[in-house]
């Protein structure tokens, strides 16, 4: 895959070598994200950060990533776009907005809408989520996190053992992660969910076709023993026809330190796409896990920044120019101890 | 007119030499808008992009234009401003906000409000639309588009033949365009609208006073033959007392390729201030016109960027410094083919 | 107090030497705020400007201040944050958002929330108002304004005579100002309010403990004679259980030029935290005061910019590097006369 000048719409565009290329650029961008140095390589470039559905953290993560490369950000956060309300087609919106930006990040509530938008756009488009369809940067940052966490324990993505826990029926992040993990060898997957919230049939078939070894269970303790990664998700209330149906499942699969200690291997890493539901009746990940060094959920969110920086750098073809433009940081970074 | 340090509130401020000056600066800014080079001439300057009424594309167009000159943008997109709700006068709001910006772009729902705001502001104010009153940047980008498109055919603004089609009663863009075209000689205008949506009487008188040759008709075919430009507008539903009244007129004046071929001269240019209504019952400009090279509607939107850049450059007095500050572009521009 | 790498959550953190340090940095930043020169000292830094409650002018003031130091701004203006709505804890929000920014400005409707957020944040947090609790930058800009205005008359903060006028019960700005003035010697304070809107008992005790000389009155003429500063506030309607209760007090304490002339010393300075209620039934400060050179309300708002710049500069430890990075301004500043 040639990233330069191309859209990123789906995780299906990526083969293993594309992923490796992206991750190696992300690695090089790490010192810029952690403010050891700065770059202005995208000085003069404009990101159109277009969110036709609210998603604060994804929006800020993309915007900050672009700023870290030196570019400016123009944003839409209006849910009901006035122009669409006046009968404008998505193609017209794309034509016009692509005249204001060098690259567009688009979040839209309708499945397939980002693809349609990209077809009319005159600049590259990155899909930041189109309905329940795709959200490639989330899958890529999850995979990047898994790889980084595993490498601490001298393991890698081949031979991965992972438990996916929670609402596997509606969780878009989980679906994309399944697709991307299918590209690796000898993956073993425990799918832990209530029966009604199991992974959709077609995805299950995709996994078995790709020779992923799958075990479905409703039992958390069983699912999380003998895995490298536990990936927990929230019940996607907003996708249920009525909230009471969702409430039946809240709190069924809560992980805390004592369950972890009793069932997990010592270095098992805990992930979550966030936001996690911390209300007492859900409590997906108990607060006593805060002290667990294997709780990787905030490292995972941080990785979103380098992954998105890498996507921008590759699509805009500047990945080779960043090091040359590096400058020192003027300010005190972080908190005084 | 001396642009430097002055407000731009109304199209009436501009005589022909002002327009020529603005357009010549816009021409010089073209390579910066199309990313052949970048400038940071407004590095350190802040635009207060204040939208007290939603208008996504106008807001993004002004913001992107300021970014392209190197400046930062602070924005208000709240429709019901909390301070105004607490009884603050527009003059106080202007005094305070002008302490945060070097220049202010203001959109406001009330006629005359931008003028009132400007009187109290300590920095230049550009009117981005005050109710049904004025929207000078729209009129200027329309005129710039007409001139550029005509120059391809070795024609110019004097001796222009133009058809204005659609809701001529409520369309603010059309009203401003009429005013500005009155400044040119030997203009011939076909006003094509349902009888109830004709151009207001006072504007009609202004045109005849300026010796514009006017022909009013309800017949699209008649109106669009023998013109250089067809300027189509949407029925301004939101200005009707009830939507059903508006619906009577939707779809009455739809242009498509076969009507165009049968009635227009070969190089007749099609314009629209956008958004255009593409719902099947309106279909102002049919999708089969996409293939027509004379469909200028997206070039017209693009021209908004250079015109707004030129307004900023002239009002902030940097139009002579841009070339000197030019730098190369680091990134790959546009899409891979 | 060591500013560098630390949160600014409460006015109680500041002793007199901290205030002097902040004000001396603010003085040095004045030429940058008034565009005699520019600095890019925070180039590459990102402010997370997080407003979980609307406050347009405070948000724009913080954002513009950061831009004036050369940094980028990412913003949240959504009142109902989607993540919080999905059951995310404030600590999780802090962990995630602090991965996207170098410093965070937080406004939140709940008392104590900013403190809680700061405990989990990995970057410094500045409190921009947490419910009725604290709003330190407002108190500091008020104090800075008092000092600057007094210095014109060869006076200083010790021996200050001030009248606080209006809703002293609910006005957060007034409460913080009382706290900060307690740090100075020989302060004389007239508290002018309807009996029901008097300063809360605990604050009154704090003032007398700090040997502030306090006089409570309902009579405006009496309160404003023999003072250096009149500080007027708006009735905080939104804090009353029902609006009609608030309406009883609107317009009771209106200052105009003839009351001023009849009762005040010649150089008495008029301040207001803004927005002021200019509706005819409130009219806290009459429009005939516009011509009074001692009306300092817009200078006060302007001072917010240098105070916030100074907060950023000190917390990020760049206050010593600003002068070295100074560059000339390219554009025409302000309006043509």
Would you kindly provide a written description of the structure presented here, covering whatever features stand out?
The structure is a homotrimer of 337-residue chains. Chain A has 337 residues and is of the alpha/beta class. Chain A has two domains: 11-134 and 304-325, Rossmann fold, CATH 3.40.50; 137-298, Rossmann fold, CATH 3.40.50. Chain A has helices at residues 16-33, 56-68, 82-85, 90-97, 113-120, 136-152, 172-181, 201-209, 220-224, 243-247, 257-263, 297-315, and strands at residues 46-51, 72-76, 103-108, 125-130, 161-165, 188-192, 213-217, 229-232, 269-271. In chain A, strands 7-6-5-8-9 form a five-stranded parallel β-sheet. In chain A, helix 1 (16-33) crosses helix 12 and helix 4 crosses helix 5 (113-120). The first copy, chain A, starts with 15 loop residues before the first helix and ends in a 22-residue tail after the last helix. Chains in contact: A-B, A-C, B-C. Chain A binds chain B through residues 2, 4-7, 41-46, 48, 72, 74, 76-78, 81-83, 86-89, 92-93, 95-97, 99-102, 121-124, 316-318, 321, 325, and chain B through 35, 38-40, 54-57, 60-61, 63-64, 67-68, 70, 72-73, 77, 234, 237, 274-279, 282, 298, 301-302, 305, 327, 329-336.
């Amino acid at each position: 895959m040639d990233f330069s000048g191309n859209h990123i719409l789906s995780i299906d565009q990526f083969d293993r070598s594309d992923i490796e290329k992206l991750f190696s650029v992300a690695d090089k961008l790490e010192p810029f994200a952690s403010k050891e140095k700065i770059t202005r390589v995208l000085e003069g470039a404009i990101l159109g950060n277009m969110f036709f559905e609210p998603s604060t953290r994804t929006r800020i993560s993309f915007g900050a990533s672009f700023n870290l490369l030196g570019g400016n950000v123009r944003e839409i956060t209006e849910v009901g776009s006035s122009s669409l309300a006046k009968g404008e087609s998505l193609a017209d919106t794309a034509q016009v907005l692509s005249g204001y930006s060098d690259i567009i990040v688009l979040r839209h509530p309708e499945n397939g809408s980002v693809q349609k938008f990209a077809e009319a756009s005159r600049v590259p488009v990155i899909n930041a989520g189109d309905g329940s369809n795709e959200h490639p940067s989330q899958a890529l940052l999850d995979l990047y996190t898994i790889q980084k966490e595993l490498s601490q324990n001298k393991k890698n993505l081949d031979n991965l053992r992972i438990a996916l826990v929670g609402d596997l029926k509606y969780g878009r992040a989980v679906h994309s992660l399944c697709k991307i993990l299918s590209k690796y060898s000898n993956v073993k997957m425990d799918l832990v969910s209530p029966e009604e919230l199991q992974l959709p049939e077609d995805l299950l078939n995709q996994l078995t076709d790709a020779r992923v070894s799958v075990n479905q269970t409703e039992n958390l303790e069983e699912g999380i023993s003998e895995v490298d990664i536990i990936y927990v998700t929230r019940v996607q209330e907003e996708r249920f026809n009525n909230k009471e149906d969702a409430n039946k499942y809240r709190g069924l699969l809560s992980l805390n330190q004592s369950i972890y200690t009793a069932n997990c291997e010592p270095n098992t890493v805990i992930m979550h796409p966030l936001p996690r539901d911390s209300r007492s009746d859900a409590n997906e990940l108990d607060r006593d896990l805060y002290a667990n060094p294997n709780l990787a959920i905030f490292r995972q969110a941080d990785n979103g920044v380098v992954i998105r920086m890498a996507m921008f750098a590759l699509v805009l073809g500047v990945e080779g120019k960043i090091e040359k433009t590096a400058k020192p940081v003027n300010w005190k970074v972080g908190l005084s101890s």
